[in-house]
Amino acid sequence: MLQGELDDAGTPDPETVDVLRALSNNALLATDSAGARKILLGRGIGFGKQLGDRIDPSSASEVFIPDSQYPMAQLTAFISETPLAVIRVARRVVELAQERAGIRPSQSLLLGVADHLHFAVQRARQGIIVAYPLHWEVAQLYPGEMAIGLTAVEVSSAEFGVPIPPEEATAFAMHLVNAQFASTDIGATVSMTERIGKIVAVVTAALGLTESVESMSIARFVTHLRYLVARTQSQTQITGCPPGLARLIHEDHTPAFELAQRVQTILELGGSPLTDAEILYLAMHIARLESTR
């Protein structure tokens, strides 16, 4: 069946969408056979399109659907104001994150990266350099994401012909970290990073460890903290633990348990109380760190 042709029942081809209006030469607002509105993006896809035109959505390079984070009005404004080249480079960054770190692509991640990239390019062209307070913490706690962020800076600099400062890699990395915990609030990721950085400093100082955060033992501890904070934020904390674990921790690893209680205080500031099971598992990870001294 040809694009936009009627089938035997006289109904529109369900694989096509009806154009509502063009947002730009490269974007248009359309509705599918179920009446759901979406935005199609692609080079020249909006050129000359008018209300009622019917097109094949597979001709679009990106299809965006409004959600709680990007309602239709906000999504429409964002796509209208963001150059196609920015969306395409953002897509390359998202694909790179999937290849290197297994980070699941999502509309939220793509639009977040694109939003940051758009303003990063504008700042670079104006010679503006932004200092990110959490640069050191992000580099130390999330080296994989930071490496992808630095690659994103290199790719973007080459694509847009302007040197984007390496400091921008910090923000790219934060978006990648945020995406791994199904959160749309980058502020929650900033808070998590600050707390984890403080916890690592407290624990390593208390244990007298001189290893860098890049060491395998501390990297494992950081990973545990990341998921612990994510569980507290999503209210999915562990509530049960193997029989005998509490006795083992209390009897054989008292210093680790006491240190875990100090960490508990940091985690509960502005957050949910930790369950007894989470505190025990935290103490177990601290005990493992202690054994590396």
TrEMBL record:
First and last residue of the signal peptide: none
Pfam assignment, any one: CAT_RBD
Keyword Oxidoreductase tagged: no
Domain PRD residues, every copy: 81-186, 187-293
UniProt-recorded name of the protein: PRD domain-containing protein
Keywords: Repeat
